[in-house]
Design brief:
alpha+beta
Length: 202
């Protein structure tokens, strides 16, 4: 498929920088913007924005949990997993963080699997997909299947977990181990990061 050919051309370049750091920064920016949008819409007050970063080195899993605006089912099924799509329509372009296509490609195509649970407007949407399932959905122009349930009153925010693969194929055609380093070189547990504006990252 066209998507698999593109990934093959990129090859180990997706992992040329520490993968966990690249993906972690992108997911942090997503959470940061979601929290800013929640504040702008009056869902949270000044100083109430929270982002938890949880790193399980043994399982090679990174989790980001925020109390941001959340996503509706259509956004999760389309824009979140689309390299060209954006899920930050609640913010003006000048207020959005990140926006680097390659960083988004890293977590969409470079993760072994992605699990998302998000709540917005009283609706909880959940999705878990492997890399191959994401690629097939993009190639076939399909929306990934989601589970939709009613959320508790006043609940909002998103939880994203990805699993970092153990190896990739290097430019020499040989298996290449993917590093795990995160900002602060956290081995396991919760990352503690200083306050960022009115959003507490812990």
């Amino acid at each position: 498929s066209a998507t698999r050919r593109m990934i093959s051309l990129l090859g180990s370049k997706m992992y040329s920088q520490p993968f966990a750091k690249v993906v972690g920064k992108e997911l942090l920016q997503n959470s940061f913007d979601a929290v800013k949008a929640a504040k702008a819409q009056g869902k949270i007050k000044e100083g109430e924005g929270l982002i938890d970063v949880i790193w399980d080195a043994e399982k090679r899993e990174i989790t980001y949990i925020d109390n941001g605006i959340g996503m509706v089912p259509e956004t999760l099924g389309n824009a979140f997993f689309s390299v060209g799509g954006t899920m930050k329509t609640d913010l003006d372009v000048s207020e959005r963080s990140g926006g680097k296509g390659l960083a988004k490609m890293a977590y969409v195509f470079g993760s072994e699997w992605i699990e998302v649970a998000t709540v917005r407007d009283g609706i909880r949407t959940e999705l878990r997909a492997t890399r191959d399932e994401i690629i097939d959905a993009i190639d076939d122009r399909l929306v990934l299947p989601t589970t939709i349930t009613k959320a508790a009153a006043g609940e909002h925010g998103t939880r994203v977990t990805i699993r970092v693969p153990e190896t990739t194929i290097g430019s020499d055609g040989q298996p290449q181990r993917i590093g795990l380093s995160l900002p602060g070189e956290l081995e396991s547990g919760k990352e503690s990061i200083p306050l960022m504006g009115d959003v507490e990252v812990r």
